[in-house]
Amino acid sequence: MASSAQSKGKYETLLVTTEDKITKIILNRPDKKNAINLVMYGEIMRALEEAAKDDSTLTVITGRGDYYCSGNDLNNFAENLQEVLKNSGELLKNFVSHFIDFPKPLVAVVNGPAIGIAVTLLGLFDLVFASDKVVFQTPFSLLGQTPEGCSTYTFPKIMGPIKANEMLLFNKRMTANEARTQGLVTEVFADSTFQQEVWTRLKAYANLPRNSLALSKQLMRSVEKEKLHAVNSRECDQLVEICFSDECMNAITSFFQKKSKL
Ligand code: COA
Q1: Do residues 102 and 48 touch, judged by C-beta distance below 8 A?
Q2: Distance 37 CA to ligand 1 centre (A)
């Protein structure tokens, strides 16, 4: 039987279930393309902490609706900016640390487009499955920002600096198949059979010995855990600093102005 934390009113922005030895963390703001607001940052951390301790073998993050996730909710910047920015460096550092330190295999089931931090974090997952309809976007320089999620380290390592530059500096959109060729995605599935094929595969993986999987993942992660924490810290400090810049403020104001003119 599935246990559903959400049904007990535990989460406002997530659906969390455990079934077939898989804990599913479903981003649940489909009307906002699953943009991560401040509540969702906190809830994802809490869901990961609980998944780390539960009996499941695998933990999966996926999105409800047509998007996987449209990244940081730009409304996070809209109110009380100075206060938000002061706290957001620590919040973001803590958030990304939960992914660095997660002790079991962590899987992204990328059901739709992914933007910003939803893309950069993929370098910290153990498996990434994507529908062939997915596009990955990292518009940091368009927003006057700098990348996070340890991507300044993981992306050049995964795809080589030349391709990482295209994405992280020049906002190059990548299709699912390009991302697979570059090593960011494990496997791409036809959108029409995506859910069926992915969950069949994951259920089979979840029957493998739980401790063996967890310990093997921890061994691999331990090689560079310290480095990842240092990178995370530098990225967050830089991001907070640049968010006070005119370039960033103007880009975010312009996003909301464009919306209000529609
Ligand atoms: N932050 C805040 N709101 C967001 C959001 C985000 N990252 N992504 C989507 N939304 C909201 C939209 O503002 C809109 O809200 P509304 O219905 O109250 O007006 C709703 O989600 C639906 O999005 P909409 O823009 O109408 O859909 P679309 O299909 O035309 O475009 C996106 C979808 C994701 C391409 C577009 O919303 C977008 O560019 N969002 C910003 C993405 C971004 O820059 N993320 C940060 C990266 S660092």
Answers
A1: yes
A2: 12
**Band of the pLDDT at 7, cuts 50, 70, 90?**
very low
Q: Name residue 241's amino acid.
A: E
Average pLDDT over residues 89-115: 97
Six token digits for residue 238: 């830089």
> Are 91 and 137 a contacting pair, CB within 8 Å?
no
Which neighbouring-strand residues pair with 122?
A: none
CA nearest 18: which of 149, 160, 210, 170?
Answer: 210
**pLDDT, tens digit, for every residue of 199-216?**
999 999 999 999 999 999
Q: Cα–Cα distance between 51 and 91 in angstroms, integer?
A: 20
Residue 245, H or E segment: none
Say if domain 6-193+206-261 classifies as CATH 3.90.226.10: yes
pLDDT at 231 over 60: yes
Q: Would the CB of 32 count as within 6 Å of ligand 1?
A: yes
Gap from CA of 174 to ligand 1 centroid (Å) = 18
> 3-state class of 50 per DSSP?
helix
Q: Which residue, judged by its Cα, is nearest atom 31 of ligand 1?
A: 33
Decide if 91 contacts 44 (C-beta within 8 A).
Answer: no
The confidence score (pLDDT) of residue 6 equals 47
Q: Is the pLDDT of residue 241 over 70?
A: yes
Q: Is 127 helix (H, G, I), strand (E, B) or coil?
A: strand
Radius of gyration of the chain (CA): 18
Answer left, alpha or beta for residue 62, where phi above 0 means left and psi between -120 and 50 means alpha: beta
pLDDT for 17 equals: 97
